[in-house]
Amino acid sequence: MSDLENSNNIEETTLETTQGAAAVPAAVEEAHVARGDWYVLQVFTSFEQKVCSAIEQKISDFNLQDRIFKVLVPEEDVIEVKNGKRYERRKMMFPGYVFVNMEKDDEAWYHLRTVNGVSKFVGAGVPEPLPDKDVLRILNQTGEVTVKPKLEIDFEVGENVKVISGPFRGYAGEIKEVLPEKGAVKVMISIFGRSTSVELDFDQIEKNV
């Protein structure tokens, strides 16, 4: 199970993970906060999708459509840069948690608690809903609103890299600065015997192993 143990922790994680996300249009706000509240289930690690599917089945079996509206395992698009190549993939934002949009209802809570793989609702003794502002940021990150994929950096200051494209192809040097907002690094390379700082995109370099 995840190390997060209470609603304060999950809210702090939500804010940290979604910091800097694009503003959410008013139309999206109205669409996603009009019905019920969003609650968080703590589940066994690697059971997130299984729990999500099981809840959807229970909604159908017990006619809970008027009390449980949506089940979500939040994911976001990330770009990894490895060995000079960019890879885009979906990444789970909160491993060990499933988000449920529902009405405050004892019967619905009971059905959710009895799903295989569910540990508990997040909350101090009773389920506590997430603030709307945090929910909207999560929905923004999951693709409810088009956002630029997050860049996942695989380079660190002090690493030795080799330039694989561009005018400095074939040179090698040490990373002196990482510029995530630009998708680039500054590398010190030796040109005509003189150490020079050059700025290179992530996909122009690879680790020199």
From TrEMBL:
GO terms for biological process: DNA-templated transcription elongation; DNA-templated transcription termination; regulation of DNA-templated transcription elongation; transcription antitermination. It holds the Pfam family NusG. Residues 154-181 form the KOW domain. Keywords: Transcription, Transcription antitermination, Transcription regulation, Transcription termination. The keyword Iron-sulfur does not apply. The keyword Transcription applies. Residues 35-142 form the NusG-like N-terminal domain. One of its GO terms (cellular component) is cytosol. Belongs to the NusG family. Participates in transcription elongation, termination and antitermination. PANTHER family: RHO-INTERACTING TRANSCRIPTION TERMINATION FACTOR NUSG, TRANSCRIPTION TERMINATION_ANTITERMINATION PROTEIN NUSG. This is Transcription termination/antitermination protein NusG. It comes from Termititenax aidoneus.
